[in-house]
Design goal:
There is one protein chain. The protein is of the alpha+beta class. The protein folds into four domains: 87 residues, no CATH class; 91 residues, Pdz3 Domain (Roll), CATH 2.30.42.10; 207 residues, 2-enoyl-CoA Hydratase, Chain A, domain 1; 91 residues, no CATH class. It contains 19 helices and 23 strands. The strands form seven sheets. A six-stranded mixed β-sheet has the order 12-13-14-17-18-23, sandwiched between helices. Strands 3, 15, 16, 19 and 20 form a five-stranded antiparallel β-sheet that branches. A hairpin with a 2-residue loop joins β12 and β13. α2 runs antiparallel to α3. The N and C termini lie far apart (71 Å).
């Protein structure tokens, strides 16, 4: 009887012997034991109660002996024994979940086995289970995810920055697997791989868009450091495919891929992630900028596109600009240990230097902790567009067979007390940004200086910079990959280009580009085309035959005008063309430096940091 008490009568002491007293529900006992032990430890500081006849903590005789041994008051003894009797006599509603879990797992297991055994067509058990798990998690928030064994490497890169691969980014476009980016000082550069190359085979295995997703492709490209992966690629302008062997190398993605001077006496740090040592990297970058320019007048911290990462690193990053002992974030959840406060624990690098933090709709989670705290403490000015609005904390739980569950365990709150979690995370704008939130659903909070800020929809910038909207012709060139493809061709034909600050798109280069897109048969549909087509349908439906010729003439005029658009909007197109070409030769570092004089967010940040009175006025509050 002592081996398992689940679903059986619990045995109690009676005159030194056991007697059957009460049946305990199978689903209730584990929770009951935990509750009694927790209450005992919390209120009476009991040692762990052990009885060879009874599970820990439920034997009234043991409780009585411990109470006597500690010379506790009679009232304390009555509370504990009364609570034990009361708890065993009634099954509290939350504990019924244990029965529901047990029952439904039994049902699901039998259903899964039956389908695999008798379904008319052969079933892939792993795929069927994956679909079932994903469907179940869809009922929760978007950030609770299951990682299969094959996805663990992706998760490791996201959480630690560690990877082993070829240092290249690939993507599907029109059914072709293209190398879209080569990392600086990567093994791909050493092997001669170029951005724009189309991968045909990986280790003699043909690639096929219809059956392979990017996860599978990335798994083929990754591997042990020192191993080689053989690629067959098609390069623009070459008739025969190339065989390229790339030696995989292990490395670590830097959280701070770049820091430098955005303008005279204005430093710039881009923070792309919050993996291990993010705070250390930001601190080192700040110290390096101060050493490089003793007259440093301000720092721009760029968090655009930063999806977040480790919560403690968001505290460490903030600590670079905020003194020791400040409360940075509070998490609140129902799991034990989920509710706690996080404070800065080190001396700051600089608590006085003017600070501008740039965010956009892709700045999420840890990025919002940093920007929200900087705003709440009035430590700096937030520039850009409203952030993503992810105020949830995840914890990683290991599962069987080297799989993992990333599960939401808490919400986080910035120093003012606001939670920036978007009220409805299932409905967003096309770019991922938070839609407009009615005032009635927002709660006002105050910053340290008395400024009003709101919860429920990301971090609203102090200085808003509208997202750039390109002309239809420019957007079409981007969507069809023609700017990317021309940069590929230019890179193949030109071994080098002038330094970043000296390289421009000359009339000759732009003529090459317009000829290139003409050869590709470039065309695009404007909003005018759409409206004209609707008008033509209405004319046809109402049989206004006399108007057909007028519409045809108008359509021809619009077509001629569209042909001129590529010249009319040359400045906008040439700017993007310049950046894409520079990236082929000087990689991300060159791209960032080339953007300083044209990026509206950087320009706005430089402007406010150069005007101390305006900067102080924004942060002054009431």
């Amino acid at each position: 009887m002592g081996k398992s008490l689940l679903g059986k009568r619990v045995l109690y002491h009676k005159d030194g012997k056991h007697s059957r007293r009460l049946s305990v529900k199978r689903s209730f006992l584990p929770a009951y034991l935990h509750a009694i032990q927790k209450i005992s430890a919390q209120y009476f500081a009991f040692p762990r109660m052990l009885c060879k006849f009874s599970p820990p903590g439920i034997c009234p005789v043991c409780i009585k002996k411990v109470c006597r041994g500690m010379k506790m008051k009679k009232t304390a003894l009555l509370i504990v024994t009364g609570l034990a009797a009361f708890s065993l006599g009634f099954v509290v509603h939350p504990f019924d979940n244990y029965f529901e879990i047990s029952k439904n797992m039994d049902v699901f297991g039998k259903l899964y086995r039956e389908i695999n055994a008798v379904y008319v067509d052969e079933v892939n058990p792993s795929q069927l289970m994956k679909v079932g798990i994903e469907a179940m998690l869809e009922e929760l928030d978007p950030y609770t995810n299951f990682f299969s064994e094959s996805q663990i490497e992706d998760f490791k890169v996201m959480s630690t920055g560690q990877y082993s691969g070829i240092g290249a980014t690939v993507n599907w476009r029109d059914g072709r697997l293209l190398v879209t980016e080569i990392k600086q000082e990567s093994p791909s550069i050493e092997a001669g791989l170029k951005a724009g190359d189309e991968i045909l085979q990986i280790d003699d295995q043909p690639v096929d868009h219809s059956v392979q997703d990017l996860d599978e492709i990335n798994n083929l490209l990754r591997g042990a450091s020192g191993d080689k992966v053989k690629l067959k690629v098609r390069r623009l302008g070459q008739a025969q495919p190339l065989e390229i062997a790339v030696e995989r190398k292990s490395g670590r993605q830097l959280n701070v891929p770049y820091y430098g001077m955005a303008d005279e006496h204005i430093g710039y740090i881009i923070l792309s992630g919050f993996t291990q040592d993010a705070g250390k990297e930001v601190a080192e970058a700040t110290l390096a900028l101060k050493k490089q320019d003793p007259q440093l007048a301000g720092i721009i911290l760029d968090l655009r596109g930063n999806p977040g990462g480790l919560l403690n690193e968001s505290v460490n990053v903030t600590n670079v600009f905020v003194p020791r002992g400040e409360m940075i974030v509070e998490t609140r959840g129902r799991m034990e240990g989920a509710t706690r406060q996080y404070h800065t624990r080190r001396n700051a690098v600089d608590t006085e230097i003017p600070l501008a933090v740039i965010v956009n709709s892709s700045s999420a989670s840890a990025s919002e902790i940093v920007s929200g705290t900087i705003q709440d403490l009035d430590r700096g000015v937030i520039v850009g567009t409203r952030s993503y609005g992810k105020g949830l904390v995840q914890n990683v739980r290991p599962l069987s067979y080297n799989t993992q569950l990333k599960v939401t365990i808490a919400k986080y709150y910035t120093p003012s007390g606001r939670c920036i979690q978007a009220i409805d995370y299932s409905h967003r704008n096309e770019d991922g940004s938070v839609g407009r939130i009615p005032d009635s659903l927002q709660t006002a909070f105050k910053t340290r200086n008395g400024r009003t800020v709101y919860d429920g929809g990301g971090i609203a910038p102090d200085l808003e910079v509208p997202k750039p909207v390109y002309q239809p012709v420019t957007q079409a060139l981007l969507d069809q990959g023609l700017i990317f493809d021309f940069a590929t061709q230019y890179n193949i034909r030109h071994e080098s280009i002038p330094p970043v600050k000296d390289f421009t798109i000359t009339d000759e280069i732009y003529k090459e580009f317009t000829d290139f897109v003409a050869e590709r048969g470039f065309g695009f549909e404007s909003q005018t085309d759409v409206e004209l087509a609707n008008l033509a349908e209405a004319v046809e439906a109402n049989q206004y035959t006399s108007l057909k010729q007028d519409l045809q003439a108008l359509s021809q005029k619009i077509a001629r005008q569209k042909e001129l658009d590529i010249h009319k909007h040359k400045a906008e197109i040439a700017h993007l063309l310049r950046l894409e070409i520079i990236k082929r030769y000087y990689y991300d570092e060159g791209l960032i430096e080339a953007s300083f004089d044209s990026d509206p967010n950087v320009l706005k940040s430089v402007d406010i940091l150069r005007r101390p009175e305006a900067y102080k006025k924004i942060l002054g509050g009431s």
